[in-house]
C-alpha cells in the first residue's frame, strides 16, 4: 500500500512561525494605515458621541399616493444629504427606513435647530439667467471698462470646443455640460466676453433696479468679486437669504470637478413649473442619453419668454442656471426659443442623466416631509452610554479570562493572547472603516463586539477539548495537537458560518442602529476564523515543543493524569493461535 503524502502537512507543522509572521505584518500594516489616515479612534455614532436624530415621514399630496416610491425617496435623501453637508457636517447620516420614513443623524457640534429647518423643508429649484461666470477663486472687483482681448476670445472658444467631448455629470458645469434644444443641437460659436464685460452689459440690458452706481448692485458685484467657491464656508453662505425676485451669487462644479462662481439674475422659472423630467436614450439620432423636460402651461410661457431672450445673448449670458438650494447643478446654453418641451443633451451617461432628471423632478415632487420624532443626545449622555458599554465588555472579558485560567490553566495563555490579537484587529479595522466607508460605532455595535468575545472564546475551547480528547486516548501532546486540528477546524468553520449567516441576514433585513450590531458581529466572526487559523493553531504548535506543555505539567492544563488518560498506545504482535487438525 502506498505511503500517505506527509510532505505538505509536515512543512506546515514545522514552520508555524510563517503564519504568526503573516498576522504580525497585517497588524503592523493596519496600524500604519490608521496613523496615516489621522483617525486613531473609531468613529462614534449619535448615541455615543452625542448629536441629533431626526425621523421624517413622507406625506404625498391628495390623490398622489403613488408618489411615495423608491426613486422619489432616494432623490429626497440625496437632497437632504446635500443640505446637511452644506451646514459643514461631514459625518451626517441620511438613510431611508421602511417605505416612507427618512432618518437623519447629525453628530454633535451642529446647530440642531438649523439642521431641522434644512432637512424638513421642500427643495427650492429655480431657473435663473447667468449674468457672469468664472473660476471659483476670489478676484478683483469687476470693472465695466474692461473688454475682452483677442487672446481671451480664442481661449474661450478653445475651451468650449474641448469641453464638447467631455463626459457629462449632473453636477454643475460650464456651458458644455448640457444644451437645451428642441430640434437638434446648435453650437454657439460666438466669442465669449470676459465675466467683467458680461456683468457690465447685463446691468444695462437686463434693466436691473438702478444703474451700476446703485448701492444694491454695487454690493452684489463686490460680493461676486470676493466670493471664493473653493472654500466650503463661502459656498454655504453664497446667495443665502436671496429672494427669487432678486439677483444673487452661487457656486457650482464643472464636469472636471472644478468650482465656478456665478452671478445670476432673478428667477424666471420656478421648480414647480416643471411637470416632469426623464432620462431617455436617443435611439433615433444616436446621440446617447439626454434629459427631457416638460413644463406646465404656466411654466411653458415663462420658459418660452426667457429662452427667447437668452438666445439673443452671447456666452455666458445665453445660459440659464438650474439652481437647487442655492447650488448650480447645471447651466445649459440656449440657441433658440423653447416652449413646453425641451431637452438637455450632451455626453451624458445613464447614471448622470438619471441623476439630473431626479434633481429636476424634485422641484415638482408631490411630497412633503413631517417630523415624526427628534431625539437629541448630549455628549455627556453619550459618554455615559459608552462608558457603560466598555464596562460591560470589560466584565464579560474578565469572566471569560477567569474561566480559562481556572479550567485550562497554562492553555489560557494561548487563549488570552488570541483574544488580544482579535481585539487589536477589530479596533484597527473599525478605526479605518470610519473614514473609508463612514462606519460609526454605536451602542448596538458595542453589544455585537461583546457577543463576539464569547464566539471567539468558543473556538478556542473547541480546539482545546479536541486536543484533550487525543491525550485521553493515550497520545503525546505533539501528535495530539495535529490530529485534533482537522476535526476542530470543521467544527469551528461550521459554527462561524452559522454566526456570519445570521449577521448577514440581520444586516440585510434591518435598518438603522441594528445594522451596526449585525455588521460588528459579522466582522468579528470573520476575524475569529483568521485568528484561529493564523495565530491560535500555530502558537499551540510552538508551545507543544516546550517542556512545560510537552511533559504534561500539572499547571499546563494538559496533565495526562488529571485528564484520565489511557496508557500509551503500543503496537503488539497478536499471539499465535494453535490450529487443531481435523480428521477427514
UniProtKB/TrEMBL annotation:
**Residues of the Protein translocase subunit SecDF P1 domain:** 73-130
Q: Which residues form the Protein export membrane protein SecD/SecF C-terminal domain?
A: 369-545
Pfam families cross-referenced by the UniProt entry: Sec_GG (PF07549), SecD_1st (PF21760), SecD_SecF_C (PF02355), SecDF_P1_head (PF22599)
Outline the segment boundaries, as ranges, of region: Disordered.
134-217, 225-244, 561-584
Q: Where is the composition biased (Basic and acidic residues)?
A: 152-167, 198-214
Subcellular localization: Cell membrane
Q: What is its main location?
A: membrane
Q: How does it sit in the membrane?
A: Multi-pass membrane protein
Stretches with biased composition (Polar residues): 170-179
Which Gene3D superfamilies did the record assign? 3.30.1360.200, 3.30.70.3220, Multidrug efflux transporter AcrB transmembrane domain (1.20.1640.10)
The record's annotation in HAMAP family points to: SecD_B
Provide the function of this protein. Answer: Part of the Sec protein translocase complex. Interacts with the SecYEG preprotein conducting channel. SecDF uses the proton motive force (PMF) to complete protein translocation after the ATP-dependent function of SecA.
Q: Protein name, please?
A: Protein translocase subunit SecD
The species this protein belongs to is: Streptomyces thermocarboxydovorans
Q: Name the gene for this chain.
A: secD_2
Amino acid at each position: 500500500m502506498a505511503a500517505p503524502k506527509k510532505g505538505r502537512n509536515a512543512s506546515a507543522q514545522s514552520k508555524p512561525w510563517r503564519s504568526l509572521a503573516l498576522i504580525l505584518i497585517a497588524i503592523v500594516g493596519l496600524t500604519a494605515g490608521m496613523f496615516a489616515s489621522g483617525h486613531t479612534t473609531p468613529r462614534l455614532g449619535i448615541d455615543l458621541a452625542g448629536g441629533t436624530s431626526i425621523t421624517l415621514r413622507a406625506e404625498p399630496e391628495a390623490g398622489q399616493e403613488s408618489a411615495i416610491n423608491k426613486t422619489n425617496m432616494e432623490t429626497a435623501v440625496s437632497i437632504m444629504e446635500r443640505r446637511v453637508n452644506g451646514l459643514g457636517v461631514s459625518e451626517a447620516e441620511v438613510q431611508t427606513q421602511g417605505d416612507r420614513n427618512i432618518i437623519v443623524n447629525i453628530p454633535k457640534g451642529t446647530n440642531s435647530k438649523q439642521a431641522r429647518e434644512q432637512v424638513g423643508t421642500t427643495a427650492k429649484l429655480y431657473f435663473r439667467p447667468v449674468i457672469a461666470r468664472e473660476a471659483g477663486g476670489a478676484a478683483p472687483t469687476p470693472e465695466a471698462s474692461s473688454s475682452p482681448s483677442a487672446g481671451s476670445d480664442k481661449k474661450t472658444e478653445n475651451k468650449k470646443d474641448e469641453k464638447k467631448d467631455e463626459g457629462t455629470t449632473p453636477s454643475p458645469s460650464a456651458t458644455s455640460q448640457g444644451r437645451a434644444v428642441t430640434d437638434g443641437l446648435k453650437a454657439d460659436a460666438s466669442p465669449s466676453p470676459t465675466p467683467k464685460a458680461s456683468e457690465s452689459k447685463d446691468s444695462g440690458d437686463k434693466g436691473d433696479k438702478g444703474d451700476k452706481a446703485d448701492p444694491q448692485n454695487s454690493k452684489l458685484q463686490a460680493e461676486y468679486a470676493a466670493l471664493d467657491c473653493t472654500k466650503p464656508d463661502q459656498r454655504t453662505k453664497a446667495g443665502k437669504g436671496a429672494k427669487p425676485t432678486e439677483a444673487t451669487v452661487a457656486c457650482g462644479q464643472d464636469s472636471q470637478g472644478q468650482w465656478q462662481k456665478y452671478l445670476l439674475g432673478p428667477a424666471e422659472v420656478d421648480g414647480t413649473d416643471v411637470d416632469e423630467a426623464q432620462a431617455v436614450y436617443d435611439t433615433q439620432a444616436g446621440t446617447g442619453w439626454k434629459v427631457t423636460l416638460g413644463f406646465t402651461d404656466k411654466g411653458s410661457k415663462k420658459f418660452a419668454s426667457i429662452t427667447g431672450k437668452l438666445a439673443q445673448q452671447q456666452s455666458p449670458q445665453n445660459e440659464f442656471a438650474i439652481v437647487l438650494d442655492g447650488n448650480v447643478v447645471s447651466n445649459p446654453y440656449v440657441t433658440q426659443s423653447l416652449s413646453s418641451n425641451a431637452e438637455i443633451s450632451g455626453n451624458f451617461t445613464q447614471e448622470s442623466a438619471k441623476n439630473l432628471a431626479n434633481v429636476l423632478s424634485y422641484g415638482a415632487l408631490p411630497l412633503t416631509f413631517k417630523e415624526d420624532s427628534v431625539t437629541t443626545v448630549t455628549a455627556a449622555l453619550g459618554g455615559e452610554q459608552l462608558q457603560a458599554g466598555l464596562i460591560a465588555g470589560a466584565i464579560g472579558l474578565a469572566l471569560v479570562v477567569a474561566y480559562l485560567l481556572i479550567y485550562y490553566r497554562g492553555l489560557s495563555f494561548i487563549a488570552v493572547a488570541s483574544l488580544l490579537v482579535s481585539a487589536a484587529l477589530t479596533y484597527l479595522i473599525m478605526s479605518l472603516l470610519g473614514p473609508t466607508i463612514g462606519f460609526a460605532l454605536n451602542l448596538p455595535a458595542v453589544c455585537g463586539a461583546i457577543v463576539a468575545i464569547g464566539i471567539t472564546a468558543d473556538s478556542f475551547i473547541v480546539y482545546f477539548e479536541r486536543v484533550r480528547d487525543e491525550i485521553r486516548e493515550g497520545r503525546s501532546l505533539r501528535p495530539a495537537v495535529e490530529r485534533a486540528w482537522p476535526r476542530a477546524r470543521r467544527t469551528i468553520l461550521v459554527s462561524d458560518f452559522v454566526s456570519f449567516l445570521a449577521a448577514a441576514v440581520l444586516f440585510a433585513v434591518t435598518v438603522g442602529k441594528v445594522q451596526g450590531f449585525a455588521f460588528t458581529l459579522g466582522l468579528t466572526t470573520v476575524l475569529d476564523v483568521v485568528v484561529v487559523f493564523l495565530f491560535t493553531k500555530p502558537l499551540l504548535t510552538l508551545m507543544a515543543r516546550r517542556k512545560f506543555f510537552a511533559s504534561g505539567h500539572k499547571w499546563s492544563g494538559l496533565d495526562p493524569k488529571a485528564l484520565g488518560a489511557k496508557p500509551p498506545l503500543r503496537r503488539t504482535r497478536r499471539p499465535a493461535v494453535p490450529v487443531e487438525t481435523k480428521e477427514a
